[in-house]
Amino acid sequence: MSLKSIQSAILAANLDNEQLSLLTQFCINCKTDNSKRSISAGDSVWVVQKTKRTPAIVQKVNIKKAIVQMNGQRYNVPLSMLAAQ
User: Fold this and answer.
1) Are 67 and 76 in contact (CB under 8 A)?
2) Domain range spanning residue 72?
3) What is the pLDDT of residue 37?
4) What is the pTM assigned to this prediction?
5) Is 34 helix (H, G, I), strand (E, B) or coil?
């Protein structure tokens, strides 16, 4: 299924705000699961924020967050904000 067809199906479904919130949470959980499967300690990643992305190195992967080395400091970052380089 392509992204266009998924977008069309969501628009055609006429979902209310509660259902859209559940769909949003589902998408965030999918991003977290994908990151958890593809990222491990020692990997180089991008920390993706709204307006920028910063390179980092994963130190440890926890259940929902990862500890990353970025700009000379360690940060606890949600897995949904990480993207592999």
Assistant:
1) yes
2) 3-84
3) 85
4) 0.71
5) helix
Q: For position 35, what pLDDT does the model report? A: 79
46 contacts: CB under 8 Å, gap ≥ 6: 53, 54, 55, 56, 82, 83, 84, 85
Structurally, how many domains does the chain consist of?
A: 1
pLDDT at 36: 81
Question: What are the residue ranges in the chain where pLDDT is below 70?
Answer: none
d(CA 15, CA 10): 7
Which amino acid appears at position 32 of this protein? T
CATH of the domain at 10: 2.30.30.140
Single-letter amino acid, residue 5:
S
**17: enclosing H helix or E strand:** helix 17-38
* Residue environment code for 26-36, b if the CB has 16+ CB neighbours within 10 A, otherwise e: eeeeebbeebb
Cα within 13 Å of Cα(26), Cβ side: 6
